[in-house]
Inverse folding.
């Protein structure tokens, strides 16, 4: 008997015993599909968490310093100068401040929603505009990429030129799809020339990342009643530079605000922090989740495997008799084992493929419903892993009766009832 | 000498209290072209004898020469070849594969023999025609009566044209009319030169065989040749 014949026999047997074949497949389908969906959803969630930090930009250091006695200006200027002295460690420095008072933003007849504290009008937070006071390196520091036009220049900032760069949300609200560069908007009636606009950040649940208008920080004094800038964002060159810059900043600020015997300063407070730490935490958290999930996936595959095992073992008697008949009319042991091997492999592969299909569709649906991701697909590694595990298990237990019964004397196999 | 067994034993649970000697020192010679009925009551060892003669089981002790070959020394694979080419089996319980139709059941031994696709359908069909089951070729065992199933089983046994047919209570589950029909087919095969071994507990059926070997408690108690009216 040749291999082609064995294939035909296996297919015949599968199609004649539909219920049993289907039940066997079901174990594999459920096992593979559930593992694929579960692992993919958690991987998707992790990817999303990391994506957030990726969009925010890495190697970003936030520095704050508050003096209890000083008006703040000298501390602020000193910190800015110190940041500049970090030289090649950093790619950019910008004040991190926002206009806190009521601002009317207008372009022609259009007025942007701004919080009007005086009249008590409440604007939904996701529509609120933020007027940021930045340097010419605001985009570099906060990971914004220009969509058109240019950034503010050093001269714009130092001269206090009335120019601005729009976040994508502000650009869309004021200009729609037309090019804003060269147009003039007004902030509380004062004209500002639009010199550029940023690409959207698109961070979910955080639209204020795009609802911003950046103006030179030199306008701080006129637009903010409280005139000192306390926070800066320093963009370091790489992860190592981040650590180095943070250490230096910490040392510098500790010098300005020496700690007393209780560990805090009597003259002011400061903070130096970086998102790199959070990103690392998220990553190690992801690792944890993956491990837990791997365990759950393993258990569900095991359960699926036991299902496969059961249905295969239940049919052992029935199949033992069939094997007895086949042996009695002259089948060699090899022919019988080959037939059963192919039968099990075909059933399990079909089940595995259906499981992957259902798992992929389920992943897409789960991704959309749970994570709002439209393009979430299972990773190849977990898909192939689950598939191989089920198929190997199915083949082992599918072949079990054949290996056992084909070694019997035909008369013993025929006696099985 | 086609079949030559000497001092054959089949012992279950040897040495234990529950020891059973299904065959207890059987010596028997059967020539090519004989029609032998092996008779005995239930438990006499007649089925065990057929299983051993048909290479479906191995004896505990003793010698078995088939066509001069020492069967006890053959490998599993060689035994499979003997079952496939030399012997056709007819069982009391038919032993058809339920999921296959009549034609596929009859084709099965030809597949294991390696007969080509084109030939084996014709051969199997001819065998079915011979037992009068050609119209039922595409029916499954569950759609057939006992007599019809047994005829399909006979077709399967003769499809490879084996020199020996072994039938274990072939009429046991059939009514007398169908039973006579089955016996008629066996006689026809005998006339064509096939060696027939018929295992039965029915003295009436045994009386229609040329030679009657009687078994009791695993031993041969009589072996006689007799006149039969149908020859």
């Amino acid at each position: 008997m040749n291999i082609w014949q064995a294939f035909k026999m296996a297919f015949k047997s599968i199609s004649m015993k539909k219920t049993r074949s289907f039940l066997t497949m079901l174990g594999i389908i459920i096992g593979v599909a559930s593992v694929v969906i579960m692992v993919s959803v958690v991987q998707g969630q992790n990817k999303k968490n990391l994506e957030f930090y990726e969009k925010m930009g890495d190697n970003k250091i936030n520095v704050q310093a508050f003096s209890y006695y000083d008006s703040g200006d000298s501390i602020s200027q000193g910190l800015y100068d110190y940041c500049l002295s970090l030289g090649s460690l950093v790619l950019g420095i910008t004040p991190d401040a926002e206009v806190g008072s009521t601002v009317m933003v207008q372009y022609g007849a259009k007025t942007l929603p701004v919080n009007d504290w005086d009249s008590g009008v409440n604007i939904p937070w996701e529509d609120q505009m933020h007027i940021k006071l930045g340097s010419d390196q605001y985009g570099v520091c906060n990971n914004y990429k220009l969509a058109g036009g240019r950034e503010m220049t050093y001269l714009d900032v130092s001269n206090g030129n009335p120019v601005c760069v729009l976040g994508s949300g502000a650009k869309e609200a004021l200009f729609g799809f037309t090019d804003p560069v060269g147009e003039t908007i007004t902030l509380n009636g004062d004209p500002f020339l639009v010199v550029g606009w940023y690409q959207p950040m698109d961070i979910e649940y955080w639209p204020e990342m795009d609802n911003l208008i950046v103006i030179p920080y030199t306008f701080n004094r006129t637009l903010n009643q409280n005139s000192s800038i306390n926070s800066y964002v320093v963009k370091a060159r790489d992860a190592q530079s981040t650590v180095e810059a943070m250490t230096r900043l910490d040392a510098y600020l500790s010098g300005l605000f020496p700690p007393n015997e209780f560990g805090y300063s009597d003259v002011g407070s400061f903070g130096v922090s970086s998102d790199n730490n959070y990103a690392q935490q998220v990553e190690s958290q992801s690792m944890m989740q993956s491990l837990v999930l791997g365990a759950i996936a393993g258990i569900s595959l095991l359960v699926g495997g036991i299902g496969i095992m059961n249905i295969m073992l239940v049919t052992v008697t029935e199949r033992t008799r069939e094997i007895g008949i086949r042996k009695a009319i002259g089948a060699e042991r090899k022919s019988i084992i080959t037939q059963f091997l192919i039968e099990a492999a075909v059933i399990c592969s079909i089940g595995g493929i259906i499981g992957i299909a259902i798992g992929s569709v389920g992943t897409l649906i789960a991704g959309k419903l749970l994570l709002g991701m439209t393009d979430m697909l299972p990773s190849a590694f977990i898909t192939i892993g689950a598939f191989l595990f089920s198929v190997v298990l199915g083949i082992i237990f599918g072949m079990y009766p054949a290996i056992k019964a084909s070694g019997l004397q035909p008369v013993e196999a025929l006696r099985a009832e | 000498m086609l079949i030559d067994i000497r001092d054959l034993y089949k012992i279950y649970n040897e040495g234990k209290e529950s020891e059973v000697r299904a065959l207890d020192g059987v010596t028997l010679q059967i020539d090519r072209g004989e029609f032998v009925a092996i008779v005995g009551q239930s438990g006499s060892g007649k089925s065990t004898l057929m299983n051993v003669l048909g290479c479906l089981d191995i004896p505990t002790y003793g010698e078995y020469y088939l066509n001069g070959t020492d069967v006890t020394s053959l490998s599993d694979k060689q035994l499979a070849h003997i079952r496939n080419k030399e012997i056709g089996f007819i069982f009391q319980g038919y032993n058809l594969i339920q999921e296959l139709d009549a034609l596929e059941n009859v084709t099965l031994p030809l597949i294991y023999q390696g007969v080509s696709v084109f030939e084996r359908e014709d051969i199997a069909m001819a065998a079915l025609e011979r037992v009068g089951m050609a119209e039922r070729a595409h029916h499954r065992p569950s759609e057939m009566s006992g007599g019809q199933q047994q005829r399909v089983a006979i077709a399967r046994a003769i499809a490879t044209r084996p020199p020996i047919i072994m039938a274990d209570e072939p009429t046991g589950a059939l009514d007398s009319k169908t039973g006579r029909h089955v016996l008629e087919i066996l006689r026809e095969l005998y006339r064509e030169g096939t060696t027939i071994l018929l295992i039965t507990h029915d003295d009436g059926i045994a009386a229609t065989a040329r030679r009657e070997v009687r078994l009791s408690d695993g031993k041969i108690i009589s072996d006689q040749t007799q006149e039969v009216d149908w020859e």
Observations:
- Chain B touches chain A at residues 51, 54-58, 76-77, 80-81, 83-85, 89, 91, 95-97, 99-100, 104, 108-109, 111-114, 156, 160 (CB under 8 Å).
- The two ends of chain B are 23 Å apart (CA to CA).
- The domain at 3-86+162-225 of chain B is CATH 3.40.50.300 (Rossmann fold).
- The helical segments of chain B are 46-53, 76-85, 102-113, 117-130, 146-159, 176-191, 203-206.
